[in-house]
Amino acid sequence: MTASLVARCVHGLEPALAAEILQLGLGVITHLGHREVHFRTSRSEPRAVALRTADDVFLLAAQGADTGTARESVEALARLADLAEAGSLMRLRESHGGPGEVTGVEVSASFLGRRNFNRYDVEDAVGHALARRLGLGYHSRRAGTAPPPGHSGWRVTLDGTRATLMLRIAGRPLHRREYKRCSVPGTLHPPLAAAMARMAGIRPGHTVLDPCCGAGTLLIEAWSQQPGARFHGFDLASEALRAAERNAAGLPVTIERGDAGRLPVPDGTVDRVLSNPPWGGQVAPHGLLAASSSHWWTELRRVLAPGGTAVVLLPGVGDLPTGIRQRLVPVHVQRVRVSGAESFLVQLTAPEEGIASSRR
Questions:
Q1: Phi, psi (5° rounding) for residue 155?
Q2: Could you give the angle at which helices 190-200 and 14-24 cross, rounded to 10 degrees?
Q3: What tens digit of pLDDT does each residue of 90-129 get?
Q4: Cα(17)–Cα(155) distance, integer angstroms
Q5: Of 223, 230, 314, 326, nearest to 271 (Cα)?
Q6: Closest CA to 301 of 329, 277, 333, 280
Q7: What is the DSSP string of 303-347?
Q8: Tens digits of per-residue pLDDT, 284-332?
Q9: What domains are there in the chain, each with its CATH number?
Q10: Mean pLDDT for the chain?
């Protein structure tokens, strides 16, 4: 039976998510929109819930016209529940790797543009209609409490043209990774970390380094894609080191205390660098980085092997000339938006000659 699926992601990662869907052979891409990729499959595809660059993945349940900005228009969205073939959707959900048992209904909503209503108004209008249709209870998020286990997760989006209703396939959002037992301020969003690892093109036998590893998210996501590589992380913060060690417990990932401005790593021995450096946003720089960001770029150039690749997340491109002066060549710059903040994914390549040759 043909099914239409929608994978949601960080704004800016839509092409990376589409590429992952195609690489896995999950189906045919039918639409790229704001934070979402639509695709169609003619078979049961449990691998859909294994997408690493997706925040979540849903079955497309129903679509209609965006009802507009007026508060009175919210109740019209309840018609989406009437359009959804709930029984078929529940069977498709299980065949695509989701749970079979459903104990209730919960809904999350988002919209583009200013409206004279809030997300909870949309969620309650659609949620109550779905609950009546399915003969189940509805859990409202308006009070800020999490839904009980076993509730089916539905999502409503309004993009100015269309109103879309979707049913989550997995039991919980895909971005909530099982390994993420501990977190620290500034910890990286796992699907974004997964996209960075894919961009790096890690191969078996590569040495992969994160000089500011935080809770270890980048290294763990990279390991999940290429377990045949070697992974090393450094950080100065004791809290970060404890979090990374706990998250990476049982994995072949080495975590050590180290200053990103003076790493205990020989010249030219790292094939891939993945990093979300602390430029003073959520996390203040410490050690040599507190004095100048140039120390970070100098070390990045020093440890990279000839022709090596670095993929870094920067809050802006203003500091990029410092890396260019180190003869690191930007080959890809991609704008992303995480939690409302604009950032840039930058892929850089080291010269083919080694660091010693470049110093002559």
A1: -135, 140
A2: 70
A3: 899 999 999 988 889 999 999 999 999 999 999 999 999 9
A4: 19
A5: 230
A6: 329
A7: HEEEEEEEEEEES-STTHHHHHHTT-EEEEEEEEEETTEEEEEEE
A8: 788 898 888 899 999 999 999 999 999 999 998 888 999 999 999 999 9
A9: 3-168 (3.30.2130.30), 190-359 (3.40.50.150)
A10: 93
Dihedral (CA of 203, 328, 330, 184) sign: positive
Q: In the Cβ-directed half-sphere of 209, how many Cα atoms lie within 13 Å?
A: 29
10 Å CB burial of residue 249 (0-12, 13-18, 19+) is: exposed
Q: CB neighbours of 221 closer than 8 A, spacing ≥ 6?
A: 52, 190, 193, 194, 196, 197
Residue 187 has pLDDT above 80, yes or no: yes
Sheet holding 207-210, edge to edge: 253-257, 230-235, 207-210, 270-275, 304-314, 341-349, 329-338
For residue 256, what are the β-bridge partners? 234
Q: Which amino acid is at 3?
A: A
This prediction's pTM = 0.93
- Residue with token string 């009437």: 82
Which band of pLDDT confidence, cut at 50, 70 and 90, is reported for residue 354? low
Are the beta carbons of 71 and 117 closer than 8 angstroms? yes
What span, in angstroms and rounded, lies between the C-alpha atoms of 192 and 46?
Answer: 22
Residues 73, 122 contacting (CB under 8 angstroms) = no
Q: Where are the beta strands (DSSP E) in the chain?
A: 3-8, 28-33, 36-41, 56-65, 104-111, 137-139, 151-158, 162-168, 207-210, 230-235, 253-257, 270-275, 304-314, 329-338, 341-349
CA distance 154 to 273: 38
